[in-house]
Design a protein that fits this description.
By secondary structure, the protein is α+β, with helices and mostly antiparallel strands. It is built from 18 helices and twelve strands. Strands 1, 2, 3, 4, 5, 9 and 10 form a seven-stranded antiparallel beta sheet that branches. The protein has a three-stranded antiparallel beta sheet with strand order 6-8-7, with helices on one face. The protein has a two-stranded antiparallel ribbon with strand order 11-12. A hairpin with a 3-residue loop joins β7 and β8. α9 packs antiparallel against α10 and α11 packs across α14. It is globular and about 60 Å long.
């Protein structure tokens, strides 16, 4: 098994060995789900982060994203996606039991927000770290507006075990080093960028948005209206991923490279060090006034908007790029997923299974390096699908040539079928193949996609996003309340909350410098260099 294997067929054949199949049972996944706390009438909550949840700064599974009202639930890496979803359910159950009459908004796009001032910025206490997190979010508000930051999504984290990467390196005549593993993760990422137009097609669930979201946003999109104030595009899949959603004109000039980790890190750091004329008008510490952390294209690396990220867990105050330089890529974070409105958890088992197949396929399919034109082609395909993905006869571009979305999907699903069989054999199941068959039905019939289902409901009943969201939120609160805990019960969550509050107090007590010095030291720290 040491011969060069550079074709899909050879790789599939090699992966059928028992040694490889065993490693596939050790794939780990985690989920990060965002959800707004809302009042019974749908308006965003104005209450602070409930004390019962613990500290948003220090809690490992219950925190906040941009807003004090935008919860984020995090599950640890697990080798069983069933366990991951069960853990995610437990977090939902505890949260819903401890937020009184409030509910969780089940859609990606916010609604019932008439004024951006109604979106409270998250608060993390008085430590320097907590203040930094709040100033960063203040910067996001000033740069892009709060409404954009109130959008919710789901992140899917995926990693292959070290035992797999050792066999994979051997298969290709390489040394099984961390550098090689990082290179192989980047090969996966490149194919993800090529094929990720399929993600909003299959899972996009934001074909419509509340009219309040469009206030003050110039656009030339041909919206139609349904209900009292909901705007939609007939074939849209994920307006969350469009220019109206998670975008930044300032970042559009960045040519982030996914060919090698060194170039990726270099360009990421350059974005943090390049002054922005547009953002220079906001103070960044002058006279102790902070409207943002810095006046550069991005304040910190987390500000980079991307449908996927290479990741390495960071130590306290360690920059993500430094973690990548020191320890390489540990996992990837898929960031192109809308919240599934038809699941109480925002994601379901079939979706997890298909994502396993999709991501493993991105590795097994040979992945040449991407040049600037190919990366732009991938971005254009993504934009086409988020705006018109369900349009009959839609064409995309592959290698500079037009190809029908269905024709390209057919080619990919032929590969997915073979990869799903590997995962089925490894796990002694049929669910991966069933997941592929289920997703293919959406290609054949766009009305089966979440965006198609959602829009059909809105148009059939002439109702708004808000009505649909409120109905689902109420139903999910009831159904989750009637369910049982799986792995972590209420008492265990209460203990975690107390421990997280104590951890925050400890962080606050250990500050030794003022905030200005803390921020200056953070940005002046020399970038990490790879160990010899």
């Amino acid at each position: 098994m040491t011969a060069q294997s550079d074709t899909f067929e050879k790789r599939i054949s090699a992966l059928q060995s028992q040694s490889f199949l065993t490693t596939l049972t050790q794939i780990k996944r985690g989920v990060e789900r965002e959800a707004l706390r809302i009042q019974p009438n749908g308006e965003i909550s104005q209450k602070p982060h409930p004390a019962a949840f613990g500290s948003a700064l220090s809690h490992e599974s219950i925190t906040t994203d941009y807003s004090e009202s935008l919860l984020e639930f995090i599950t640890p890496p697990e080798a069983s996606s069933q366990k991951t979803l069960a853990q995610l359910h437990d977090v939902h159950k505890f949260v819903l039991e401890n937020m009184d009459e409030e509910q969780l908004w089940p859609l990606s796009m916010p609604c019932f927000i008439e004024n951006e001032a109604d979106i409270p910025i998250a608060y993390y206490g008085e430590s320097n770290v907590g203040k930094m997190k709040r100033v960063y979010r203040t910067g996001l508000k000033n740069r892009y507006g709060s409404m954009m930051q109130a959008i919710s999504g789901v992140h899917f984290n995926f990693s292959l075990p070290e035992s797999f990467w050792s066999l994979w390196a051997e298969l290709h005549g390489k040394n099984p080093t961390q550098d090689q593993t990082s290179e192989d993760y980047f090969a996966l990422i490149r194919n993800y960028r090529r094929f990720c137009w399929l993600i909003p097609y299959l899972y996009g669930a934001s074909p419509a948005l509340c009219g309040s979201f469009l206030e003050g946003k110039p656009h030339a999109l041909p919206f139609k209206k349904v209900g009292k104030g909901t705007y939609y595009m007939p074939y849209a899949t994920s307006l969350r991923m469009s220019d109206l959603g998670y975008t930044s004109d300032e970042q559009s000039s960045l040519k982030i490279c996914y060919n090698h980790i060194d170039n990726y890190v270099r360009l990421l750091r350059t974005a943090m060090e390049t002054p922005s004329e547009r953002f220079s008008k906001f103070s960044a510490g002058e006279g102790g006034h902070y409207q943002q952390l810095s006046k550069h294209i991005i304040q910190i690396e987390n500000e980079l908007y991307s449908p996927i990220r290479p990741k390495q867990p960071t130590n306290s105050m360690e920059k993500p790029s430094d973690a990548l330089v020191r320890r390489g890529v540990s996992y990837i974070e898929v960031r192109a997923l809308d919240v599934d409105p038809y699941s109480p958890l925002g994601i379901n088992q079939g979706q997890c299974d298909f994502l396993d197949v999709f991501l493993l396929s991105c590795l097994v399919i040979p992945s040449a390096e991407l040049d600037a034109s190919q990366l732009q082609e991938a971005k254009d395909n993504m934009n086409t699908v988020v705006l018109e993905g369900r349009k009959p006869g839609l064409s995309l571009s592959s290698g500079g040539s037009d190809i029908g979305l269905i024709d390209w999907a057919k080619q990919l699903f032929a590969r997915f079928t073979e990869v799903a069989k590997l995962l089925d054999d490894a796990h002694s199941t049929h669910r991966y193949s069933e997941a592929v068959k289920s997703e293919w039905k959406k290609v054949e019939d766009p009305s089966l996609t979440p965006s198609g289902r959602m829009l059909s409901t809105l148009l059939a009943d002439d109702i708004d996003n808000g009505n649909l969201g409120l109905n689902l939120a109420s139903a999910y609160k009831v159904s989750i309340a009637e369910s049982e805990y799986n792995y972590t019960d209420s008492e265990a969550f209460k203990a975690q909350a107390i421990a997280s509050i104590e951890a925050q107090k400890k962080v606050e007590s250990e500050d030794t410098v003022d905030f200005d010095t803390f921020i200056r030291d953070y940005f002046n720290e020399a970038p990490a260099k790879k160990n010899a």
